[in-house]
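Late entry, 2-acetamido-2-deoxy-beta-D-glucopyranose complex.
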Amino acid sequence: MDTYLYRSKLFLLSILFLVLLTASLSSLQPLCHDDERSTLLQFKDSFILNKSAFVSAYPSAYPKVASWSLEGGNSDCCSWDGVDCNEDTGHVIGLDLSSSFLYGSINSNNSLFHLLQLQRLNLADNHFNDSQIPFGIGNLLRLTYLNLSYSVFSGKIPLELSHLNKLSSIDLSLNYGLYTLSDLRSLVQNFTTLEELLLPNINFSSSIPESLANLSSLATLDLEYCELHGEFPTRIFQLPNLRDLKIRGNPNLTGHLPEFHLGNPLKVLSITQTSFFDSVRSIPLSLSNLTQLTYLDLSRNTLTGHISSSFFANLTQLTFLDLSYNKLGGTLEFDMFLKIKSLSVLRLSSNNLTLLTKANSNDTLPQFHTLGLGSCKLRKFPDFLRSQNKLSWLDLGGNNLEGLVPRWMYNASRESLHTIILSNNFLIGFEQSLVVLPWSNLTSLSLDNNRLQGSLPIPPPSIRVYQVQRNLIREMSPLICNLSSLYYLDLSYNNLSGMLHPCLGNFSSHLSVLQLRSNNFRGTIPKTWAKRSRLSKIDLSENQLQGQLPRSMANCMMLEYLNVSNNQINGAFPSWLVCNLSSLEVLDLSYNNLSGKLHPCLGNLSSPLSVLQLRSNNIRGTIPKTWAMGNNLTMIDLSQNQFQGQLPRSMANCLMLEYLHVGNNQIIDTFPFWLGTLSRLKVLVLRSNAFQGSIKSFEINDTFTELHIIDLSRNNFSGNLPTEYFRHWNAMNVVGANELKYMEVNSRRDGFGSSIQCTITITNKGTTLKYEKILDVFRVIDLSGNRFDGDIPELVGSLKGLHSLNLSNNALTGYILPSLGNLTNLESMDLSQNKLFGEIPAQLTQLFSLEYFNVSNNRLTGAIPRGSQFYTFQSNSFGGNPGLCGSPLSKKCGDFNYTPTPPYPFEENQSSSSPFEFGWKVVAIGYGCGFVIGVVIGKIVITRKYGWFVKIFGKM
Ligand SMILES: *[C@@H]1O[C@H](CO)[C@@H](O)[C@H](O)[C@H]1NC(C)=O
Ligand SMILES: *[C@@H]1O[C@H](CO)[C@@H](O)[C@H](O)[C@H]1NC(C)=O
Ligand SMILES: *[C@@H]1O[C@H](CO)[C@@H](O)[C@H](O)[C@H]1NC(C)=O
Ligand SMILES: *[C@@H]1O[C@H](CO)[C@@H](O)[C@H](O)[C@H]1NC(C)=O
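Prediction complete; structure with ligand written out below:
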């Protein structure tokens, strides 16, 4: 008994002792320092805890500083949330306030920078309201860990950051507004023990210092989208601890991959959108030695070569593999991905691969999240998709899928699929016709360019982007009106007919882009356009819509692009529309029956209107007098109307103007030399008006220097050809770049990259052709159908970029200059119906591109030269010149000793360099109109050089 009592006493005593010991030990741990406590409280008070500013906060986010308070007697700041103190000294050495709903600016006086003992600072995922990273941070010399990612910092990074020479980890990612004036070298040169360097999206505009390759502890390097240039130090790839390397999105960064050996620890490798592979063409096979890789992005590098299964044999850890947009060839067995169990993102689209999908649904394939199998020559929907249940993004575009979308596809990833791309196949419909397509969370569906027939498939109400361009759809169910999340709808180029459904004007407050171009819609445009409309782009062109534009369209206050061209819209020109819509950038009402006059507001717009196309209507009256300074107009097309009076001089205020077409009106004026100051003007067409007088040359140095196309035909201009102007038309002298680029005007904010097309229709010899696109290199001078007299100036021979020269139907005299043989790009030359005399110079046979040539009805004499293109011209090119002889004319030159007219007197000068011969740079272009130049060219090329024609003009 005693023993028992004794034992239990001892037990109690020892418990007591333990309790006391613990109590005394805990009282040994120092409480936090008073000054640091008040510093922390001040820090807390400098922010608002504003949850509403954090739309996309991490789920784990909560306001850590909310618990920082003296109330409740908790004055030991070391026990506060997110605060870490040194156990011996009680100093605050760590602050983790990530995802804490901190909102507000932070500046260098902030109390935080008094915590000089701080070693770890994490402020990630807060909102510092675009304040700069405070230079005070340079005081915290003991910092080893600094995380300011995703916190809405912007502005200049303080150089003081480089004082923190104990840093082993710095993360400034996901801030987007950060930049630095110093280069990367001076920022990182003090960081000698760095393990993690994450500075993506910061504009450095510098090269990567070789010294980074000395950081032997470096494990993570993220310099994506930093505008880095120069050579990437190859030694960095061989750093013994480097696991994450991301340098994507530095297009001017060059470098090359080393030979990778087994045992290299790289897990993440992202080097796409750099110039790394500019010289290396084939895929670097030693990547197959990187057995630790989980993430490999080699997309968009024009890599060639074949990849075989053995390339992936050891890459069993991959979760992300993107090889899309290269030129990889060969046949790939999909089975090879069976072994890569963790693979969840696989993109192979847009290569030259042939994908064999033997795998059937019984094989346990990885469960993919993203599958890009576009352009993989698939002939049917791969069977393995049946067992994919987590798929969110699926691209099967550009394959050879034909027939119906199989019924089993309805079950594949029914809940998880968000995006399906089936464009550019040969699909005709869906196997089981359902009222609504079954993927219940679908947000984006692209069926562009298939052969879908009948009724428009209706996606579920979650759909946001729906693209069904270029199919054979005939009907649209009113169920379309239920798609209340729709943001982008494109049904262009189908066979839809009937009236436009009235709901289109107001059914979805999200709808931003509505494209119904080129269908057979008839009747009037819906009457009601909602006030809350977010429509920014409406394209109803190429239908058979009638009646007037409804006034309620002025409710679409966010409208940037409106195209109703090629319909039968009538009524007065809708000034209320143009004058009220303050966002409008592109207005195309061409080819309708609009009448009335233009409102003066047009020239005085506050809107950013940049493209105004009113071609082929019945608008009359004068062109508005006042065109305000500072307008954004780049393209004005008023052609084929009934405008009268003069061209207003204030049009010279349209400083952005690149394209001006007022042809086929009744304008009476002299040559608008005052437009010569518009330094961007590329196209000037005054054709078929009543312009008159001689074109005087003024002593202005730079006038019309950018002109690519000038058409003054069918007016009453007289006097000599404008020699001095020829001297200034610098752009005419540019010999075409090889790069095939179309003239384009891009609508600035249309995030869908559409460019504006304008069409110039030129009528020549009764043939009218209209083209959609034209190459930017195209250069044209058309002065035909006027009363110009005198000689063809020598200077014309130096406009080397010229593709078409038309001086026909004037009263020109003198010789055809041998120097015209220098216009080696010329495809069309028309000098007919003048009073030219002398011989056709043999030099013209050097014009190997010449497709059309006409010197008929002049006073030319002598033998028609023979050679190259001249063999292809018919007799009507030469007729009406009684003195001409030789093939193709029936008149033989005979064997009599024919004395040619003296050659052009200055012939010996022809090879001397003209003032234009130095290298004019090809001028970058930025506008978009497809139009036609000379029929001539069109016609001839169609028959003889179809391929070239398609390149120049695009498919019609
Ligand atoms: C490196 O750090 C020291 C302080 O430790 C500082 O004086 C020096 O200016 C820093 N170098 C740069 C380039 O900032
Ligand atoms: C790349 O270099 C070109 C020419 O040197 C320059 O125009 C361009 O802005 C640079 N791009 C970037 C992203 O640095
Ligand atoms: C992989 O590395 C070994 C040495 O570890 C090397 O011999 C081999 O050539 C490398 N493989 C390739 C495909 O480069
Ligand atoms: C895969 O790795 C093993 C060593 O782990 C090596 O022997 C083999 O050659 C590698 N296979 C390929 C295809 O690189």
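The first helix runs from residue 2 to 28. Will revisit in the morning.
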